[in-house]
Amino acid sequence: MLYIVLLLVLAALGLLVTALVTGTSLWAWVSIGLSVLAGLLLLVDWLRRRKQSDADAEADADAEPAEEKDEDAPAEEDAEQTALLPATGELGDPADVPEPETGKPGPESEPKSEAKAVRDTPPGVEETAPEDLEVVKELEDEVVVVDEYPRYHLVDCGWLSGRDTIPIGVGEARQLGFTPCARCGPDAVLAAAHR
């Protein structure tokens, strides 16, 4: 129906231009008639869509009581899934999210190896000497960050193994609130390289 309205509007525009060029008022009246017809078609389409959406809303309201009878089982599943999400809306550090318990014995319930636990633990903050900090703040040397983690690292940091990294200038990383990794010590390395 909207295509018909579009064609009527284009025809009305063409007739209006014709009326202006030829100076004939008949073409102007026909243009006005086509415009009114297009407006009426839009109104009819709007009323039809509104009536259909009201009917859909009533059908949904009628269907809800039948669905409420079977809500006990899905409610338990929803509660289990929601329990894994923090209530404040902040996701925080992915390493802090507990693994879901399946209740089944198997390899999932065995303790993690120490190497994997060390790799999954985010590194601490490097204690930067004040003189190194003054040098590093002005540098644009490239360091890397990992999405969702607050530290910046040297490219060869062992903690980065297998993680997707984002290259960024060290000065910009500091401005964005990233802190240096204690494991690879980027501030001390970069400051020593620029002295």
Write the SSE topology.
Blueprint: H1 2-22, H2 25-68, H3 72-83, H4 114-120, H5 130-137, E1 142-145, E2 151-153, E3 166-169, H6 170-175, E4 179-180, H7 186-193
Parallel strand pairs: 2-4
Antiparallel strand pairs: 1-2, 1-3
Helix pairs in contact: 1-2, 5-7
Features:
195 residues, 54% helix, elongated, four-stranded mixed β-sheet, alpha+beta
At a glance:
By secondary structure, the protein is α+β, with helices and mostly antiparallel strands. The protein is built from seven helices and four strands. Strand 1 and strand 2 (151-153) form a beta hairpin.
Major sheet attributes: 4 strands, mixed
Helix and strand content put the structural class at alpha+beta
| Strand arrangement across the biggest beta sheet | 3-1-2-4
Estimated radius of gyration: 33 Å
End-to-end gap: 74 Å
Q: Which of globular, elongated, flat, extended, rod-shaped describes the shape?
A: elongated
Oligomer: single chain
| Low-confidence sequence ranges | 103-110
> Approximately how much beta-strand content do the residues carry?
5-15%
Find the count of extended strands (DSSP E, 2+ residues). Answer: 4
Order of helices and strands: HHHHHEEEHEH
Helix content: 40-55%
Mean pLDDT: 77
Number of helices: 7
